[in-house]
Amino acid sequence: MKAHPWRVWLRGAVVAVVPLVGGLAAGCGSDSIVGGGCREGLSECNLKCVDLVHDGKNCGQCGNVCPGELICFGSECQDEGNLPGSHKDGGDASSTGDGAPGDVSSGDGGTGDGPRGDGQGGDGQGGDGPGGDGQRGDGNVCLPPFDNADHCGDCETQCSGATPVCGLQATYKCLAACEAPLEACGALCVDKFSDENNCGMCGNICPSGICQAGHCVGAGFGHEIMIGMDYTDVALSLSSAQVTMLANAVLLVNKPTINVLVYDEFGDAVSIARIQTWLTTAASGRTLTFKSAQGWTSVPSKLAVTDYQVFLVYDQPMAPVDQMATSGTLWNGAMDAFAKGGGVVVVLDGGTGHTMDLLTNGGLLSVTGETSVAGTQVKVDAPTDVVGLNLPDIFLARRNSVAFTTTQAPDSHHVFVVKDNAGALPVVVHAVP
What is the mean pLDDT of each run of 10 residues along the chain (433 residues)? Predict the structure, then answer.
């Protein structure tokens, strides 16, 4: 099974810790870059926006750390006592502050209680309050942009526990290191349902390299079958070539009882009922059980060969435009592990325009387009393949049936069982992962 280069994000399920930015869930981390760049006044250092004027770890340039008790002011490492307006600077407090942190607590002059050393000189004793937005009450210096775990959003907030990362989400806030369904394992965000190195728990490595629903399973001989046929035509019957082919796919499992997990969330209920009746009849003495996966988010946690032998995805004509692409991305790793563990994945594409996104994002078949073959004769190109057994050499495609334009070529792992009338594009593909 191949992952699409730009759509797929959940396979193997190990990703580096990256941040939440601008309200977008980006996995894990503390990146504070917004929209590809830093806001005015900040500079990018190692994918983080910093203030080179005041940042003690990047003073004047990236990576320049101020030693000892020196602080960064004006892009230079300086002794706090030498800064204008500092209580250690016992000179004339008559000047207006230039942005240096600190209170005006002594000198020749008056009530210098303005923030950041802005007080005007006079005769008398100066004030000793906290210094504006950059002065903590204990006298320690804390400067904007308050973008780290020790000072997140303000001087006092520290990030720890369940929210250890300081990230930019409208303002700087303490955020979780990993966004569901990913969980933290050390410095990595992983999907414990399908990650073979952290299967069910951190550090649990599967000897077979296959993790399904949080359990290590042994490798098997699985199948992935993509069928571009429309099963809504009432003229179809149990003896129709389309139905025989579907039965061949679902009944590949050589067991007396076959448990089938079905995805029917946006499917046509009447068509689904007819398909399940046909399959039950075709089982001829074997028992088929159909269990609905309910919502699309639950599929990865349920898809395991210990519970099901077949995953059947019906055509989803009522799915929102982007739903099947999103589902494919989430299911990618789980479907791969299911098929490699010996399970059978069958996906029906009735030409609604959405299932091709599931095939691509799910890593089943890279589809760049679909061509209608409705009302045309299609050819059985691989009659000896198990999916093509007992089919006529040609038969009529119904309603919205489609052929796939794909970057995948036939090879030892991909058989084009049925092709369009010209013999150029596949209508049914049987893959062995």
Answer: 38 38 37 56 81 90 90 88 56 40 39 39 39 48 81 89 75 79 81 91 86 79 94 95 98 94 96 97 96 96 94 96 95 94 95 90 96 97 96 95 96 96 97 92
CA pair distance 295, 388, nearest whole angstrom: 32
* 3-state SS track over the chain: CCCCCCCCCCCCCEEECCCCECCECCCCCCCCCECCECCCCCEEECCEEECCCCCCCCCCCCCCCCCCCCEEECCEEECHHHCCCCCCCCCCCCCCCCCCCCCCCCCCCCCCCCHHHCCCCCCCCCCCCCCHHHECCCCCECCCCCEECCEECCCCCCCECCECEEEEECEEEEECCCCCCCEEECCEEECCCCCCCCCCCCCCCCCCCCEECCEECCCCCCEEEEECCCCCCCCCCCCCHHHHHHHHHHCCCCCCEEEEEEECCCCCHHHHHHHHHHHHHHCCCCEEEEEECCCHHHHHHHCCCCCCCEEEECCCCCCCCCHHHHHHHHHHHHHHHHHHCCCEEEEECCCCCCHHHHHHHCCCCCEEEEEECCCCEEEECCCCCHHHCCCCCEEECCCCCEEEEECCCCECCEEEEEECCCCCCEEEEEECC
Tell me which residue has tokens 């907030």.
Answer: 157
Cβ atoms of 114 and 97 within 8 Å: the answer is: yes
The whole-model pTM stands at 0.54
Contact 106, 125 (CB under 8 A): yes
Tokens of 86: 């500092």
What is the Cα–Cα distance from 147 to 207, expressed in whole angstroms?
42
Residue type at 319?
A
Amino acid occupying residue 107? G
CB proximity list for 83: less than 8 A, separation 6 or greater: 71, 73, 89, 100, 101, 102, 117
What are 375-378's contacts with CB under 8 Å, separation 24+? 376/420, 376/421, 377/421, 378/403, 378/418, 378/419, 378/420, 378/421, 378/427
